[in-house]
Amino acid sequence: MTVIPILDLRASQRSIAELAAMTSASNATAVAPNGLLTDRLERPLRDLRISVTDRCNFRCVYCMPKEIFDKDYRFLPHSSLLSFEEIFRVAQIFVAHGVEKIRLTGGEPLLRKHLERLVAMLRTIQTPSGRPLDLTLTTNGALLAKKAQALRDAGLDRVTVSLDSLDDANFKRMNDAEFPVSQVLEGIEAAHRAGLGPIKINMVVKKGVNDHEIVTMARHFKDTPYILRFIEYMDVGSSNGWRMDEVLPSDQVIARIRQHLPLSPIDANYAGETASRWRYDGGGGEIGVISSVTHAFCGDCNRTRLSTEGKLFTCLFATGGHDLRALLRNGQSDDDIANAIGHIWRNRGDRYSELRAAQTGSQAQGTGRKVEMSYIGG
């Protein structure tokens, strides 16, 4: 087995031939997949998020603002995307290293044609202990009513739906695509009927834009099968013009809700869970808050991300990735690719949010231009 140094070829001038030459010359110790891989901070690899497209039918102001992602924006050609067969191959390798959960993201993943075929392929993968994968998907819900049953039939476990407002006019302003909120709600109901649950509803809270709807959202989803989660507006990428004064801390979100609907904290479901969980007193379900800005959760982060063209990112706030597609298409063996992934994770020391928090809430200095969320998913 040989060690594969992986490079972000967008930033590197090295050709594939030079990459192959580096591969054959490497003498580093091999990292065989045994399900016990940890990084420099002893965090295991458990969660893989795979972006299947960089395209989206929304132009949400905090993710893909229309002034940048306009009609002239050049999205990746289909030939640049990982094929379903390539995704399946690399997913098997990640699972051998310890991944137990795979989330399909985008862009908007339901724009990828025949996505249910990929779901069916991934459904056949089992963990080394023989357990099935936790297989899930994040969507804006626009196509969910049409796709929910086919996705469930293919083996998808559950979905997370982004929904930032219940007010139709405000929702249209935020998605900037004139898409009505009623169709997203129809998609959520279709997913529930298909058995894709528990369904989580994600609301990105941006101060002065939709924070006045926090209690409205909490009331609407109380006593339903759905888990509502409030996400702090994040400094992901460089195109959304993020400012700290537009972030409403999750502590204030909870305080606003508790003025009307009493809540009590509950324990996390598993190590590395991003959301802090709260239950309505007296019943009615639960909500969550994801405090990605004000309360760093880097300490037990066990997630890695694969972009739509096969670049591996070890942090949501990364400035560069590692080109797995080059290895997949350059004839490297599964052992070689597993070895490369192993070395990348072993060398991982990412803790962007902790560093940002240490700098009194501002963006961490010296991080450079971060990768866009629309490229690697949330």
Output the keywords.
12-stranded mixed sheet; 378 residues; alpha/beta; 15% strand; 12 helices; single chain; disordered N terminus
Using the CA coordinates, give the radius of gyration: 20 Å
Distance between the termini: 33 Å
Helical/strand content category = alpha/beta
> Could you give a short account of the major beta sheet?
12 strands, mixed
Helicity level, as a percent range? 25-40%
Poorly predicted regions are 1-27, 360-367
Spatial strand arrangement across the major sheet? 7-8-9-6-5-4-3-2-1-10-11-12
Average pLDDT, to the nearest integer? 86
Rough shape? globular
Subunit arrangement of the protein: single chain
Determine the strand fraction and express it as a percent band. 5-15%
Topology as a string of helices (H) and strands (E): HEHEHEHEHHEHEHEEEEEEHHHH
The tally of helices reads 12
User: How many beta-strand elements?
Assistant: 12
Structure characterization notes:
The protein is of the alpha/beta class and 378 residues long. The protein contains twelve helices and twelve strands. The chain has helices spanning 16-25, 84-96, 115-123, 144-154, 168-175, 181-194, 214-221, 250-258, 324-328, 334-346, 352-358, 373-376, and strands spanning 47-51, 101-105, 134-139, 158-162, 200-205, 227-232, 263-266, 276-280, 286-290, 303-306, 311-313, 322-323. Strands 7-8-9-6-5-4-3-2-1-10-11-12 form a twelve-stranded mixed sheet. Helix 3 links the parallel strand 2 and strand 3. The protein is globular, with a radius of gyration of 20 Å. The two termini are 33 Å apart. The model is unreliable at 1-27 and 360-367 (pLDDT under 50).
